[in-house]
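User: I'm putting together a teaching handout on how sequence relates to shape, and I'd like one worked example. Could you take Methyltransferase FkbM domain-containing protein from Alexandrium catenella, show the sequence you're using, and then write out its predicted structure as tokens right after it?

Assistant: Happy to. First the sequence, then the structure tokens directly below it.
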Amino acid sequence: MQVALGAEGEPESGSVEFEYYPWAPGESTRHLQEAAGQRSRLARAARAAGVDRPPRAPGRRRAERHHCAVSTLSRALEAALPRPAGGPLRAVDLLKVDAEGDEEAVLRGITAEDWPRVQQVAVEVHDLDGRLQRVLEVLRGAGLSRLSVERQCPTSNGSYLSFVPRCLRLFHVRAARRQQAQLPRCVCIA
């Protein structure tokens, strides 16, 4: 079953079109202009930093277009963790969201009734048009009062380099309920 997670009533048609990249599924998105802008900013920053792009394999950049229905995270939770008759709700210890432009919609797709079961959230946010502040408002409104926001930055691990220039405005947000242990920190090197 293919389904996209979003906010209630979004979109009105009940179906969305995604661009899917088989060689890099984590980059797949329905926000094509936003993704193109991010790629353009990344390419300019890489050139300015003297980072060369690896050669492309033939056909590798071909994206596939897919249509799928939109549902909410609360509906997905109900299917995965149904409410026991008369029993307590099953907890979600950690909710991780990396939705390439749909982070806010995914979080808004959690009902007020379901938010108490979510103990911690880790979300990657592309801060365009005030999205970071809106995501923080959703998390605070849901009772996740322990917040940590860190700008994603370049990291290196042996022969692996993650190049994340400031112009991408990419943030890691971690949120937890007050009773949770210390939030983990991201390790960044400059």
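A couple of points you could highlight for students: Residues 184-190 have pLDDT under 50 and may be disordered. The longest strand covers residues 64-71.
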